Amino acid sequence: MRIGIGYDVHKLVENRRLILGGIEIDYHLGLLGHSDADVCIHAIMDAILGALALGDIGKLFPDNDMKYKDIDSKVLLKKVHNIMIEKGYKIGNIDTVITAQEPKLAPYIDNMRKTISEILNTEITNISIKATTTEKLGFEGRGEGISTYALVLLDKIVD
Ligand SMILES: Nc1ccn([C@@H]2O[C@H](COP(=O)(O)O)[C@@H](O)[C@H]2O)c(=O)n1
Ligand SMILES: C[C@@]1(CO)OP(=O)(O)OP(=O)(O)OC[C@H]1O
Protein backbone atom coordinates (compact mmCIF):
# COMPACT_ATOMS: atom_id res chain seq x y z
CA MET A 1 0.00 0.00 0.00
CA ARG A 2 1.25 3.51 -0.81
CA ILE A 3 -0.14 6.95 0.09
CA GLY A 4 0.00 10.23 -1.85
CA ILE A 5 -1.16 13.82 -1.47
CA GLY A 6 -1.99 16.39 -4.15
CA TYR A 7 -2.91 20.07 -4.03
CA ASP A 8 -3.71 22.49 -6.82
CA VAL A 9 -5.08 26.01 -7.28
CA HIS A 10 -6.39 27.78 -10.39
CA LYS A 11 -7.64 31.31 -10.85
CA LEU A 12 -11.26 32.11 -11.76
CA VAL A 13 -11.60 34.33 -14.83
CA GLU A 14 -14.20 35.39 -17.37
CA ASN A 15 -14.61 33.72 -20.75
CA ARG A 16 -13.54 30.24 -19.60
CA ARG A 17 -15.70 27.17 -19.00
CA LEU A 18 -15.66 25.84 -15.43
CA ILE A 19 -14.52 22.21 -15.52
CA LEU A 20 -14.27 20.34 -12.21
CA GLY A 21 -13.95 16.61 -11.62
CA GLY A 22 -14.15 16.01 -15.37
CA ILE A 23 -17.51 17.69 -15.91
CA GLU A 24 -18.72 21.13 -16.90
CA ILE A 25 -20.28 23.24 -14.13
CA ASP A 26 -22.79 25.96 -14.89
CA TYR A 27 -21.10 29.22 -13.72
CA HIS A 28 -20.29 32.63 -15.18
CA LEU A 29 -16.52 32.21 -14.57
CA GLY A 30 -14.07 29.42 -15.38
CA LEU A 31 -10.60 28.34 -14.27
CA LEU A 32 -7.53 29.63 -16.08
CA GLY A 33 -4.74 27.24 -17.06
CA HIS A 34 -2.67 25.81 -19.87
CA SER A 35 -5.04 22.82 -19.87
CA ASP A 36 -8.78 22.94 -19.07
CA ALA A 37 -7.54 23.79 -15.53
CA ASP A 38 -9.57 21.05 -13.82
CA VAL A 39 -8.11 21.66 -10.37
CA CYS A 40 -9.80 18.56 -8.92
CA ILE A 41 -8.37 16.12 -11.45
CA HIS A 42 -4.98 17.87 -11.21
CA ALA A 43 -4.84 17.30 -7.44
CA ILE A 44 -5.85 13.66 -7.91
CA MET A 45 -3.11 13.13 -10.54
CA ASP A 46 -0.49 14.69 -8.25
CA ALA A 47 -1.65 12.43 -5.39
CA ILE A 48 -1.30 9.30 -7.55
CA LEU A 49 2.11 10.42 -8.84
CA GLY A 50 3.11 11.30 -5.28
CA ALA A 51 2.18 7.84 -4.05
CA LEU A 52 4.45 6.41 -6.74
CA ALA A 53 7.21 9.00 -6.03
CA LEU A 54 7.15 9.97 -9.72
CA GLY A 55 7.16 13.76 -9.34
CA ASP A 56 4.19 15.88 -10.36
CA ILE A 57 2.00 16.77 -13.34
CA GLY A 58 4.17 19.75 -14.26
CA LYS A 59 7.08 17.33 -14.75
CA LEU A 60 5.00 14.85 -16.76
CA PHE A 61 2.94 17.37 -18.75
CA PRO A 62 4.96 20.64 -18.96
CA ASP A 63 2.83 23.78 -19.22
CA ASN A 64 5.05 25.14 -22.02
CA ASP A 65 4.30 22.13 -24.25
CA MET A 66 1.65 23.03 -26.85
CA LYS A 67 0.61 19.36 -26.88
CA TYR A 68 -1.20 20.07 -23.62
CA LYS A 69 -2.75 23.44 -24.53
CA ASP A 70 -6.45 23.35 -23.54
CA ILE A 71 -6.22 19.58 -23.10
CA ASP A 72 -9.07 17.79 -21.34
CA SER A 73 -7.61 16.78 -17.94
CA LYS A 74 -9.49 13.45 -18.20
CA VAL A 75 -7.01 12.52 -20.96
CA LEU A 76 -4.10 13.32 -18.62
CA LEU A 77 -5.72 11.32 -15.80
CA LYS A 78 -5.97 8.29 -18.11
CA LYS A 79 -2.23 8.61 -18.83
CA VAL A 80 -1.49 8.75 -15.09
CA HIS A 81 -3.78 5.75 -14.58
CA ASN A 82 -1.81 3.79 -17.21
CA ILE A 83 1.50 4.64 -15.50
CA MET A 84 0.04 3.49 -12.16
CA ILE A 85 -1.01 0.15 -13.69
CA GLU A 86 2.44 -0.29 -15.32
CA LYS A 87 4.01 0.20 -11.87
CA GLY A 88 1.75 -2.55 -10.52
CA TYR A 89 -0.77 -0.51 -8.49
CA LYS A 90 -4.53 0.07 -8.46
CA ILE A 91 -6.67 2.62 -6.65
CA GLY A 92 -7.48 1.75 -3.04
CA ASN A 93 -9.46 4.90 -2.40
CA ILE A 94 -9.31 8.63 -3.06
CA ASP A 95 -10.60 11.47 -0.90
CA THR A 96 -10.72 15.08 -2.07
CA VAL A 97 -11.86 18.48 -0.85
CA ILE A 98 -12.71 21.17 -3.40
CA THR A 99 -12.66 24.64 -1.83
CA ALA A 100 -14.92 27.06 -3.68
CA GLN A 101 -17.06 29.87 -2.31
CA GLU A 102 -19.25 29.52 -5.42
CA PRO A 103 -20.89 27.84 -7.23
CA LYS A 104 -22.77 25.22 -5.21
CA LEU A 105 -21.11 21.94 -6.21
CA ALA A 106 -23.29 19.43 -4.31
CA PRO A 107 -25.59 18.74 -7.31
CA TYR A 108 -22.55 17.78 -9.43
CA ILE A 109 -20.57 15.65 -7.00
CA ASP A 110 -21.93 12.20 -7.89
CA ASN A 111 -21.40 12.82 -11.60
CA MET A 112 -17.77 13.84 -10.87
CA ARG A 113 -17.26 10.64 -8.79
CA LYS A 114 -18.71 8.47 -11.56
CA THR A 115 -16.58 10.17 -14.25
CA ILE A 116 -13.35 9.76 -12.26
CA SER A 117 -14.13 6.18 -11.17
CA GLU A 118 -14.63 5.14 -14.79
CA ILE A 119 -11.28 6.61 -15.88
CA LEU A 120 -9.48 4.98 -12.94
CA ASN A 121 -11.31 1.67 -13.43
CA THR A 122 -12.49 1.51 -9.83
CA GLU A 123 -15.81 1.45 -7.96
CA ILE A 124 -17.51 4.80 -7.41
CA THR A 125 -17.45 3.99 -3.68
CA ASN A 126 -13.65 4.33 -3.81
CA ILE A 127 -13.91 7.96 -4.95
CA SER A 128 -14.91 10.64 -2.44
CA ILE A 129 -15.34 14.27 -3.51
CA LYS A 130 -16.35 16.89 -0.99
CA ALA A 131 -16.89 20.64 -1.30
CA THR A 132 -16.46 23.44 1.18
CA THR A 133 -16.47 27.21 1.24
CA THR A 134 -14.03 29.18 3.40
CA GLU A 135 -16.80 31.33 4.85
CA LYS A 136 -15.61 34.09 2.46
CA LEU A 137 -12.05 34.07 3.86
CA GLY A 138 -8.93 33.99 1.68
CA PHE A 139 -8.63 33.78 -2.11
CA GLU A 140 -11.24 31.06 -2.48
CA GLY A 141 -13.59 32.97 -0.20
CA ARG A 142 -13.19 36.12 -2.30
CA GLY A 143 -14.06 34.08 -5.37
CA GLU A 144 -10.63 34.63 -6.93
CA GLY A 145 -9.86 30.95 -7.39
CA ILE A 146 -10.65 27.35 -6.53
CA SER A 147 -8.34 24.87 -4.79
CA THR A 148 -8.41 21.12 -4.22
CA TYR A 149 -6.66 18.74 -1.85
CA ALA A 150 -6.56 15.03 -2.75
CA LEU A 151 -5.34 12.03 -0.81
CA VAL A 152 -4.94 8.63 -2.41
CA LEU A 153 -4.18 5.12 -1.25
CA LEU A 154 -2.83 2.72 -3.85
CA ASP A 155 -2.93 -1.05 -3.46
CA LYS A 156 -0.41 -3.41 -5.06
CA ILE A 157 -1.99 -5.51 -7.82
CA VAL A 158 -1.58 -9.19 -6.98
CA ASP A 159 -1.99 -11.74 -9.79
N1 LIG B 1 -18.87 25.25 -3.40
C1 LIG B 1 -19.52 24.53 -2.46
C2 LIG B 1 -19.23 24.65 -1.11
C3 LIG B 1 -19.94 23.91 -0.21
N2 LIG B 1 -20.90 23.05 -0.64
C4 LIG B 1 -21.72 22.26 0.32
O1 LIG B 1 -22.20 23.09 1.34
C5 LIG B 1 -21.84 22.57 2.61
C6 LIG B 1 -21.56 23.67 3.59
O2 LIG B 1 -20.40 24.37 3.21
P1 LIG B 1 -19.57 25.18 4.31
O3 LIG B 1 -18.35 25.70 3.64
O4 LIG B 1 -20.49 26.25 4.76
O5 LIG B 1 -19.23 24.22 5.40
C7 LIG B 1 -20.64 21.67 2.34
O6 LIG B 1 -20.51 20.67 3.31
C8 LIG B 1 -20.97 21.12 0.97
O7 LIG B 1 -21.84 20.04 1.11
C9 LIG B 1 -21.17 22.95 -1.98
O8 LIG B 1 -22.04 22.18 -2.41
N3 LIG B 1 -20.47 23.69 -2.87
C1 LIG C 1 -1.75 20.52 -16.60
C2 LIG C 1 -0.73 21.51 -17.08
C3 LIG C 1 -0.32 21.08 -18.49
O1 LIG C 1 -1.29 21.42 -19.43
O2 LIG C 1 -1.17 22.84 -17.17
P1 LIG C 1 -2.14 23.73 -16.24
O3 LIG C 1 -3.54 23.58 -16.73
O4 LIG C 1 -1.63 25.14 -16.23
O5 LIG C 1 -2.13 23.12 -14.78
P2 LIG C 1 -1.12 23.20 -13.55
O6 LIG C 1 -1.85 22.67 -12.37
O7 LIG C 1 -0.58 24.58 -13.42
O8 LIG C 1 0.12 22.22 -13.84
C4 LIG C 1 0.33 21.21 -14.75
C5 LIG C 1 0.52 21.66 -16.17
O9 LIG C 1 1.71 21.25 -16.67
UniProtKB/TrEMBL annotation:
<protein>
    <submittedName>
        <fullName>2-C-methyl-D-erythritol 2,4-cyclodiphosphate synthase</fullName>
        <ecNumber>4.6.1.12</ecNumber>
    </submittedName>
</protein>
<keyword id="KW-0456">Lyase</keyword>
